[in-house]
C-alpha cells in the first residue's frame, strides 16, 4: 500500500537535501531530546507516557520495519506521522489524515502577563482540559518535553499551549487548547505568542503542525505570521501479529 504524503513547500536545496523538519521526530530524538530516546537499531521513539511520536530513518529498510515491530510489540498500532513511503506486506494502515507544517515567518511573539508556567503538579488539570478540547496527544509526562504555559481564571486552568518536538534550532508549539466556555477571547493567540517568545529567546524558531482540514486553526496561524512550509500526513499502522521471518517459516495450509 502506497502512502505518499504531500511534497515540501520550498525548503529544500536544488540537490533535494532533506531539511531537519522533514523528519522532526528523528531530529529531536537524535538531538535535544536524545535523553528521552528508546532505541532498537535505527528506530527511535519517546516513552509511551511522554509522546506517541516515533522516528524511522528517512529511508527505512526491512530490518528497520522489523525493529519497529519488535519495539512496539506484535499487533501494536503505531503512529507514523509524516512518513511518505510504502508500508511492507503484513502491515495494516489504520488511520490517515492530511496535515500541514507551519514555520515562524514574522510572529509578533511576546510574553503574556497572565500566563503561568505549568509543571508536573498541574498535569491532572492539563489532562482534563485536553480531554475536553482534544488538541492532539497529551500524556502524563508530555509536560517534560518543554515549556508549557497556561491561563487560569478563579484558579481553574482554562487555556494552555506548550512545546513538543525539538529538532536542533527549532521547537514545535503544541497542545494549544481553550475551555469552550472561554473561546473567542483570544487566549490561544496570546499563549501561542508567549510560547513563541520563549522559543525565540533561546535563539530557536517556532513551528507547528495541524490537520489540513482544520481551516480555522490554519487561518489563525497565517494571521499570526506562520507560513506553510510543507504538506504532510498523520497516519498509523498496525504491526504484524508475527515477525516476518516467523510468517515466512509458517507451513502453508
Describe the structure.
Residues 113-245 form the N-acetyltransferase domain. Pfam families: FR47. It comes from Streptomyces incarnatus. This is Acetyltransferase. Keywords: Acyltransferase, Transferase. 23% of the residues lie in helices and 28% in strands. By secondary structure, it is α+β, with helices and mostly antiparallel strands. Strands 4-11-5-10-9-8-7-6 form an 8-stranded mixed beta sheet, sandwiched between helices. β2 (43-45) and β3 (54-55) form a beta hairpin. The model is unreliable at 1-10 and 247-253 (pLDDT under 50).
Bulk shape: globular
How large a portion of the residues is in β-strands, by DSSP E?
25-35%
Radius of gyration (Å): 19 Å
Q: How are the strands of the largest sheet arranged?
A: 4-11-5-10-9-8-7-6
Structural class: alpha+beta
First-last Cα distance: 25 Å
Low-pLDDT ranges = 1-10, 247-253
Number of strands: 11
Amino acid at each position: 500500500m502506497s502512502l505518499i504524503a504531500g511534497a515540501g513547500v520550498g525548503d529544500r536545496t536544488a540537490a533535494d537535501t532533506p531539511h531537519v523538519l522533514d523528519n522532526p521526530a528523528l531530529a529531536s530524538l537524535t538531538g535535544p531530546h536524545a535523553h528521552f530516546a528508546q532505541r532498537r537499531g535505527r528506530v527511535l521513539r519517546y516513552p509511551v507516557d511522554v509522546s506517541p511520536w516515533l522516528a524511522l530513518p528517512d529511508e527505512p529498510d526491512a530490518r528497520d520495519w522489523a525493529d519497529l515491530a519488535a519495539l512496539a510489540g506484535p499487533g501494536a498500532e503505531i503512529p507514523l506521522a509524516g512518513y511518505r513511503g510504502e508500508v511492507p506486506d503484513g502491515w495494516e494502515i489504520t488511520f490517515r489524515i492530511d496535515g500541514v507544517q507551519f514555520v515562524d515567518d514574522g510572529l509578533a511573539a511576546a510574553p503574556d502577563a497572565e500566563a503561568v508556567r505549568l509543571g508536573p503538579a498541574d498535569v491532572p488539570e492539563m489532562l482534563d482540559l485536553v480531554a475536553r478540547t482534544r488538541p492532539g496527544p497529551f500524556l502524563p509526562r508530555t509536560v517534560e518535553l518543554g515549556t508549557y504555559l497556561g491561563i487560569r481564571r478563579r484558579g481553574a486552568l482554562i487555556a494552555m499551549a506548550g512545546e513538543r518536538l525539538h529538532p536542533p534550532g527549532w521547537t514545535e508549539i503544541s497542545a494549544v487548547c481553550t475551555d469552550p466556555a472561554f473561546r473567542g477571547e483570544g487566549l490561544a493567540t496570546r499563549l501561542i505568542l508567549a510560547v513563541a517568545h520563549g522559543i525565540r529567546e533561546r535563539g530557536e524558531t517556532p513551528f507547528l503542525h495541524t490537520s489540513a482540514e482544520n481551516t480555522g486553526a490554519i487561518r489563525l496561524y497565517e494571521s499570526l505570521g506562520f507560513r506553510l512550509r510543507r504538506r504532510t500526513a498523520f497516519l498509523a499502522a498496525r504491526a504484524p501479529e508475527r515477525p516476518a521471518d516467523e510468517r515466512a517459516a509458517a507451513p502453508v495450509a
